[in-house]
Write a structure and sequence with these properties.
It is a single chain. By secondary structure, the protein is mainly alpha-helical. The protein is 56% helix and 7% strand. The protein is built from twelve helices and five strands. A three-stranded mixed beta sheet has the order 2-1-3, with helices on one face. A two-stranded antiparallel sheet has the order 4-5. A hairpin with a 2-residue loop joins strand 1 and strand 2. The protein is globular. It starts with a helix and ends with a helix. The relative contact order is 0.17.
Length: 270
């Protein structure tokens, strides 16, 4: 009995520690999954229910919860991507200071791994159900990560330490908490009703291309975030127009990630 209690306590502590590292925060990822849930085709919804037994929003932060376990530690670098010399590289080669135990390979970044999983899932009918489910859970989370400014690293633009109400935080950390900062108290349905009323043609246009082209399409927004968040002053002293623009970018990227996640899942089960 005592051993069971110890295991529960250790698991709780592990999950609490990981929760502080969520990209876009768990609430932000949940909103992305919620948007995607609302835009699945009937067949994709049926297949997701078969393999997952739950909504995309439910599994939106699954990979963050498991990334530091022994079984899934090899996925730790998959939450980010780096940009160096006009190419996509592992975040660690473009300024990510995170330290991982697994050996570094050139395809150890979110975009490459998403594309690899999508290629595997073309043959989902011949894959074990558990393998399909794991790939889906990873993709659900990682598409959101690839839309987070704090998870796209630029070799020539080092992520700096800034202050938020006198407390030091990294640029990465600021962006991870951006959804909660700008949409506190707003339900997923309220966010959807306000920001996600696009026409069918607008959604089709938004979802053209693939994960890599979406990174390049968002590059200006990612770089703009660095300009809006001055490292020399406290966040509370940043001009209100800069904060408002950061909210616009945050809402747009969450919206886009949700529609694109639905597109990716729909394509798997078309």
């Amino acid at each position: 009995m005592r051993n069971r209690i110890l295991i529960f306590v250790l698991a709780f502590v592990a999950l609490f520690s990981v929760s502080r590292a969520y990209a876009w925060s768990s609430a932000g990822h949940c909103v992305i999954g919620h948007i995607a849930d609302k835009n699945l085709t009937p067949k994709a919804r049926k297949m997701c229910n078969k393999y997952l037994g739950h909504s995309l929003a439910y599994y939106a932060s699954w990979l963050d919860q498991w990334r530091y376990s022994h079984e899934y530690h090899h996925t730790a670098r998959w939450h980010a991507v780096g940009v160096k010399d006009g190419k996509l590289v592992p975040g660690q080669l473009a300024g990510d200071v995170a330290d991982f135990l697994a050996p570094l390979t050139m395809d150890d970044h979110g975009v490459a791994r998403i594309e690899q999983m999508l290629e595997q899932l073309k043959d989902y009918r011949n894959m074990p159900d558990s393998a399909v489910a794991t790939n889906l859970k990873c993709i659900i989370h990682m598409v959101g990560d690839m839309h987070c400014p704090g998870h796209v690293f630029f070799a020539e633009q080092k992520q700096y330490v800034m202050k938020n109400n006198g407390v030091e935080m990294r640029f990465h950390g600021y962006n991870d908490s951006a959804y909660n900062r700008f949409n506190r108290g707003k339900t997923a349905d309220q966010f959807y009703d306000k920001y996600c009323r696009l026409t069918k043609k607008e959604i089709e246009k938004l979802c053209e291309g693939n994960m890599e082209s979406w990174i390049w399409g968002n590059e200006k927004l990612f770089r703009e975030c660095y300009k809006l968040l001055s490292p020399t002053i406290d966040y509370r002293d940043i001009p209100e127009k800069n904060k408002f623009r950061m909210k616009e970018i945050t809402d747009e990227l969450h919206r886009d990630a949700g529609f694109r996640l639905a597109h990716v899942i729909n394509q798997i089960f078309k």
